[in-house]
Amino acid sequence: MPLVTTTEMFKKAYEGGYAVGAFNVNNMEIVQGITEACQEQKAPVVLQVSKGARAYANHTYLVKMVEAAVQECPDVPIALHLDHGPDFETCKSCIDGGFTSVMIDCSSKPFDENVEITKKVVEYAHAHGVVVEAELGTLAGVEDDVKVSAEDSSYTRPEEVEEFVSRTGCDSLAIAIGTSHGAYKFTPEQCTRNEQGILVPPPLRFDVLEEVSKRLPGFPIVLHGSSSVPQEFVDIINAHGGKMPDAIGIPEEELRQAAKLSVCKINIDSDIRLAITATIREYFDEHPDHFDPRQYLKPARQAVKDMVTHKLIHVLGCNGKA
After folding, report:
1. Dist CA 79 CA 29 (whole Å)
2. Residue 153 pLDDT
3. Which end of the chain is more exposed for a tag (fewer CB within 10 A), N or C?
4. Which pLDDT does position 152 carry in this prediction?
């Protein structure tokens, strides 16, 4: 099947009480690892590209790699999505360049300005058969060019969502309920420590999610910054020359709970980076004489596939939903 929009996959996810995984892609191995997992698990997927990924890998290369995945995984619905589009021009470039979904992120701007720019993107996108994700509320953390301090982050205000969706015509809405970008989502001061001394992050604001859902019945909600930062990857990285103290993510059981509600799309990026980095660091230590990139990128690709498979089954619940 050709690339699809997220409309039908989100409708099924909402009704089925699961979420679709939105995984950031930057190179061939990541695309292969994600889509091979989805093909085996018969899971729909959103492959998303950030502004930073376009700068790194080139728009054309990324689109062609995703098109190759579509050809190799004919049973999997795949949407190609722009993650955190900073302005109309970037969104337009992706719409014109073959993407089936774009996000316009004006969440840091005043409400009316966010509405104005989002509406402009929606009008252009819908005229070209493309869907639009918007955002209300501001997530803390760092992801490519998106950098927001904890002090500048803010939860989504449920009383604003109906007006925003009505005025913009957006197709899905990213909200802020306590997730955060990057591998260092919370400071130690924001967390508690369990009996093993491991940091435990503050719980997600499900009250905000539930209130948004009441005000937007049937409308697909998106969670950004939802990597869980698996400690096994962090431990491997630290054991093989890395320095990632107090890296912490969102507990998977909380994400599964969100997926059973109105959250139809959950974004995962840092966990992919951690899986690759942990695998390569360990490989370099164990094989100091190897220099062929294929030797260490092959297990790195497998690590991505294994991690995504776990997410599809145990976190997103979208296996068997293609």
Report:
1. 18
2. 57
3. N
4. 44
- What is the set of active-site residues? 83
Overall pTM > 0.85: yes
CA distance 117 to 130: 16
Q: What is the pLDDT of residue 149?
A: 45
Can you spell out the DSSP letters for 182-217? SSB-S-GGG-EE-TTS-EEPPPP-HHHHHHHHHHST
Residue type, 136: L
Residues 183, 24: Cα–Cα separation, whole Å:
14
Confidence of residue 194 (pLDDT cuts 50, 70, 90): confident
Domains and CATH numbers, the chain: 7-316 (3.20.20.70)
State the residue for tokens 């099947």. 1
Backbone angles phi, psi at 116, to 5 degrees: -60, -50
The residue among 236, 270, 255, 261 whose CA lies nearest residue 312 is 255
Kind of pairing between the strands at 172-175 and 221-223: parallel
Q: Please tell me what DSSP assigns to residue 164.
A: H
For tokens 């969670």, name the residue: 223
Cα–Cα distance for residue pair 64/85, rounded to 1 Å? 20
What the block records as the tokens of 194 is 């369990």
Q: Angle at CA 260, nearest 5°, toward 31 and 82?
A: 35
